[in-house]
Amino acid sequence: MNLERFEKNTMNGSLFPPELVRIIVENLSYNRPELHALTLVSKTFHWEAMRLLYRSMTDPEGTRHYNFLVAVRKRPELAELIHTYHVPTIAHSQKRPLWSLILRSLLLMVNLKELAYLRLFAIPLTPFPGVRKGQKMPFQLETFIWTIGWRGPWDMCPFHPTKTLQFLETQHELRYLRWSYGLPEMSIAYSLPEMSIAPNIVPKLKILYSSFNAIQAFLPCRTITDLFWEGPTSPATSYLILKLKEFSGLRAVSLPGDVWSTLTDPRVEGKISPLNTIKVLELRSAIKIHKILPIIAMFPCLKRLIITPDDPHSGNITERYPEADIFSLYEQSSNLIYVDVRISDIFFKRWINKLLSPDMVIIPYDRVLELE
Asked: Using CA atoms, how far apart are residues 146 and 165, in angstroms rounded to an integer?
C-alpha cells in the first residue's frame, strides 16, 4: 500500500474493522471531550462517536439542553440517535423559550425509549409534545418517569395528572412507569385523582413505582410484575390494594413500613389472597427481625428478602442484625436464598443460604427488586 492510499484509508477509517471502531469508541463513552475529538478523526469514527454523544441527554442544566437541542433541530438525523432524554431541572440562560424547543425536538426523537420529568424548571402550558388527531406519537417509550419535586403550591399545575394520562394513552409499549412526587407525604394528596384507567392504556406495563392512588388506578387489569409502593398509606387504604388479585400475582414488591405492618393486622387476616408468586420482597423502615418473621411467613415462595432500615447509618450492622436473627429468617422461609441488609445508599450486606458474603454488595436503585 503506497503512502497516499494509506493516508486516504486512515482518514476515512477503512483500515479499522467497524467492530474495532465501535469497541474503541465505547471505551470512551463516559469521556465526552474525547468523543468530540473522535468525531474529527474520520467518517467512521465520526458516526460512532456521534451515536454515543447523542444517545442520552440527562444533564440537569437547561443551557446545555438548549445547545444540544439546537444542534438536533439543525441536523434532524441526530434526533434518531437519542434513546434517553431527561427534561432539564435548572432553567437556561438563553432568551429563546426552552419548553417550545424541547417539545418540537421530542417529536423528532423517533427512537426515544426513556423520557423523564424529574422536576419542572418552569411551568409550561403543556409538558408533553402533541400530535394531531389521528396521528401517532412518533416514539414509543419503554420507560416513563414523572417525579415532580415539591416546592410549594406554585410548583404544581392542577391539569398535569390529566395531561400525563393523555400522554400515556399514546404509549403502547411502556414497561416501566414511575409516577411520584418529591416528598413522600405529598404523594397521596398530589398523585392521581381517584379514577379507573382503561386496560388499553399502557397495556404492557410491568414495573410500577408510585403511591396509593396511582397503584389503585394502574394495578387492576394489568400483568404488572414489580411494584415499588411509596408511602405513607393508612391501613384502610392499604387494604384496598392488598386485597386485589393483581397484588397477589406480583413477582417482586417493595413495601413501606405502614403498609407491610398492615399485612399482620388481625382485621385483614384471611381477606388477602395467598401471596404465592412473590419471590422478592423489600421491607422498608424495617428494624427488628421479630417483627419481620410473621411478614415473610405470608410469602411461601420468597427467595430474596431486602431489609431497608429507617436509618442504616446508625449503629453497627452486626449488632443490629446478629447471625442468630438472620438464621431465624431462613427457618421461617424454607425457599429463602438471599437476605440483603442495606448499609448505606447502594451498599448492602448479603447472606446467601445463611452464609455472610465477605464483601459488601452494590445494588443500584433500579435493580433492588431483581432476584439476584
From this structure: 11
- Inter-residue long-range contacts of 318-325, CB under 8 Å, 24+ positions, other chains counted: 320/287, 321/289, 321/349, 323/356, 325/289, 325/290
DSSP conformation letters of 149-200: PP--GGG--TTHHHHHHHHHTT-SS--EEEEEESSGGGTTTTSPPS----TT
What's the predicted TM-score (pTM) here?
0.84
- Could you state, in order of their start, the residue ranges of all structural domains in the chain? 15-57, 58-224, 250-366
Q: CA 114, 174, 366 angle in degrees (round to 5)? A: 60
| SS3 annotation, 51-111 | HHHCCEECCCEHHHHHHHHHHHHHCHHHHHHCCEEECCCECCCCCCCHHHHHHHHHCCCCC
DSSP 341: E
Q: Assign 3-state DSSP to the chain and report helix, strand, coil percentages, each to 5.
A: 35, 15, 45
What is d(CA 172, CA 186) in angstroms, rounded to the nearest whole number?
A: 29
H or E, element range at 10: helix 3-12
- What phi, psi does 161 have (nearest 5°)? -55, -40
Q: What is the pLDDT along the chain (372 residues), one digit of tens a residue?
A: 443 443 444 445 455 666 666 666 666 556 666 666 666 566 667 667 777 778 889 999 999 899 999 999 999 999 999 999 999 999 888 777 899 999 999 999 999 999 999 888 887 878 899 888 778 999 999 999 998 754 444 444 544 677 888 899 999 999 999 987 644 444 444 445 555 688 889 999 999 999 888 898 899 989 999 999 987 778 888 888 898 999 999 999 999 888 888 888 887 777 888 899 999 999 998 677 888 898 999 999 999 999 988 765 555 565 667 778 899 999 999 999 999 999 888 899 999 999 999 999 999 988 899 987
